[in-house]
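Continuing the batch. This is chain 6 of the set; chains 1 through 5 are on the previous pages. Same settings as before, nothing changed between runs. Recording input and output for traceability.
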Amino acid sequence: MIRPELDGRIALVTGSATGVGRELLLSLADCGASVAVHYRSSEEEAETVAERARERGAPEATTVQGDVANPDAVEAMFDSVEEKLGTVDVLVNNVGPFAPAHWEEISYEKWNTVLQANINGTYLCCKRALPGMREQNWGRIVNVGYASSEKGLVNPKNAPYFIAKAGVLMFTRMLANDTQDDGITVNAISPYVVENSDEFPEELPRGRPANFEDMEQAMLFFLEEGSDYISGENIEVDGGWLPEKV
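Output for chain 6:
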């Protein structure tokens, strides 16, 4: 089990009141980080996760609300975390809504929501986190992508999500290059299907979806002290999935 030493570090995981984001945040609490549980509408669930984080070892845990695609909301989110906990050392961009329908059937509003939250949300949170990370010459950013991005797959069903996650991966690599002299690493973890998904394909690599621990281990690898020379990389948490086989 990978378990980086994060005592004294402050972590913000977007979309961490439920699902994958919740489990990623709790794994950071296990490593001794103080954590900020981000939510958009599920305040009660966020408070429950914050309490669980304290029980799991987080010295401090707070909640923060906001729409990651809204610049003013992102500014307020980070202001709140900095006031309550301090400078964000570890940022995990997990928010990423999707639209499981043929692209011609998706409304412009839904199409735009998916692109905005995935691409603009990642951009805005990274941009806001960087000044503090640069000032202390240390920071870790992990963006959650999708396995199709590396494989060049764009499915007509859920097209904006596939396109958005490809953009997230490109942004990850650009930002890694731009921060290489700042003590910051920027990487991505990209699942195919995760166990909390609403529906699964008929066939799955290795006979199962990725579980939360698979995702946690990939993220924690990038936070290990010995991983500080690894930036701009993407770990596909997909069991060896190839589109033509599934």
